[in-house]
Amino acid sequence: MNRKVGRPSGKTEARDELIEQARTLFSALPYEKVSTRMIAESAQVNAAMIRYYFGSKEGLFEEMIRETMSPMRIHFRKMNESSTGHELREIMATHARQMAKFPNFPRLVFQSMSMPESAKPRQLLQKVFDEYMVLTEEKVFEQLLRRKLFRDDVDPELCRLSMMSLMMFPLIAPPAILEMNELTMNEEFIERLLAHNFAILENGMFKTLPSNTVKDTQ
Amino acid sequence: MNRKVGRPSGKTEARDELIEQARTLFSALPYEKVSTRMIAESAQVNAAMIRYYFGSKEGLFEEMIRETMSPMRIHFRKMNESSTGHELREIMATHARQMAKFPNFPRLVFQSMSMPESAKPRQLLQKVFDEYMVLTEEKVFEQLLRRKLFRDDVDPELCRLSMMSLMMFPLIAPPAILEMNELTMNEEFIERLLAHNFAILENGMFKTLPSNTVKDTQ
Fold first, then answer.
1. Which of A25-29, B44-48, B86-90 has the lowest mean pLDDT?
2. Which residue has the higher pLDDT, A144 or A47?
3. What is the maximum span of chain A, computed from C-alpha positions, in angstroms?
4. CB atoms < 10 A from the CB of A152, how many?
5. What are the residues whose beta carbons fall under 8 Å from the beta carbon of A20, sequence distance 6 or more?
6. A130 φ, ψ to 5°?
7. How far apart are CA B121 and CA B209, in angstroms?
8. Do A169 and B168 touch (CB under 8 A)?
9. pTM for the complete prediction?
10. H-only helix segments in chain A
């Protein structure tokens, strides 16, 4: 990681650099093998800055997850009792585009969630998810169920899992599986995948889903 | 694993027991941590039997993969130039039901395929896949493409990945994700998932897909 030349090297920049290096290192190595010293060295800042900004390695991990997921937060906030599935589309699009920027992050989430409940990374991840995602998303799915927006031939309780499957599997799949399909993970692929998945969901899962309102949020 | 009482403890039984213990141990531990002595002890047979039947640890791993995947083989053989997608359904059903019997096996495949190309488990897995799956499946997909059986609004090159996503993600997902959706992995869940996924694919991906011909192959 090269430091940007000619920019003031203020405290905010140090904080951002710590988040970025934490994301890279926690994605590449097991949680217990990543030390605060290692992150500070990669970020080229004093290790005391980690204590100052985040309190500890745990605090830094948690904040790194929170910041990486934060673009989705605004959509979750917009979700309310009258949601029709349109916000779900926006979340799927924002999530996929954000993940395209940090291609190793989905695997980090997947691996952390696969750990036992007692494992620190799993607990920290769960904490961030619980803050603003799981409950709102659940409420919206309940709404979709109550308003009978799913097709009669699909299993409504499996619809949320199917949406996750279509969006998450390509992001965590072994590169060999993408290669087998002659696909490469990049921004163009993400946009193709989004358009394709919306078509499948629109025809295969929903009775109605507004299709003209997804904006490019890049 | 209890030995069945009252059955003749012939050579075939020792071989089957070695396969079964290999599947359990290779799913639970990294490949290099599993020794032939360990497998022989779990199977309660002499370690020399591994050399006799499989040649080596590599040979046993390979044969364990081959036998676990073998129920799909018959369907791949049936696939031919006139396939319409019906065989794909049969393969999806057979695969899901076989995986329900060995719930840790999909994760073993997923983890092995995520390894670098030089890793032994990845190479052995690839060898078995290449034998009878990848090429036949590719031929069938080419047929589906050529005969324009996919809907116009989906991306035909992504259809194979979507089918994998819908079937594989629920099998490898962290238990926490199933719990979040109030789902439990068992045979009933697999049957629900199959019916649900067929409905999504039929309406969301295919123009036509015979729906009255999937037999219970259990």
1. B86-90
2. A47
3. 60
4. 8
5. A1, A43
6. -65, -30
7. 36
8. yes
9. 0.85
10. 11-28, 36-43, 48-54, 57-78, 86-101, 105-113, 120-132, 134-146, 156-172, 175-180, 187-204
Residue A1: both structure tokens together: 């990681």
Q: DSSP character for A154?
A: S
Give dist(CA A189, CA B158) in Å, integer.
10
Q: Which residues of chain B lie closer than 8 angstroms to A176, CB-CB?
A: 113, 117, 122, 126
Sort out which chain A residues have CB atoms less than 8 A from B178's CB and list them: 161
Q: Find which of B126, B157, B172, B200 to mutate to test the A interface (most A CBs within 10 Å of its CB).
A: B200
List, as ranges, residues 105-124 from A with C-beta within 8 Å of B.
Answer: 110, 113-114, 117, 122
d(CA A37, CA A48): 9
Residues in chain A: 218
Tokens 């995520």 belong to B114
What span, in angstroms and rounded, lies between the C-alpha atoms of A161 and B166? 9
3-state SS, chain B, equals CCCCCCCCCCHHHHHHHHHHHHHHHHHHCCHHHCCHHHHHHHHCCCCHHHHHHHCCHHHHHHHHHHHHHHHHHHHHHHCCCCCCCHHHHHHHHHHHHHHHHCCCHHHHHHHHHCCCCCCHHHHHHHHHHHHHCHHHHHHHHHHHHHCCCECCCCCHHHHHHHHHHHHHHHHHCCHHHHHHCCCCCCHHHHHHHHHHHHHHHHHHCECCCCCCCCCCCC
Answer yes or no: is pLDDT of B4 > 70: no
Residue of B nearest to A129 (CA): B180
Q: Cα B109 vs. chain centroid, distance in angstroms? A: 8
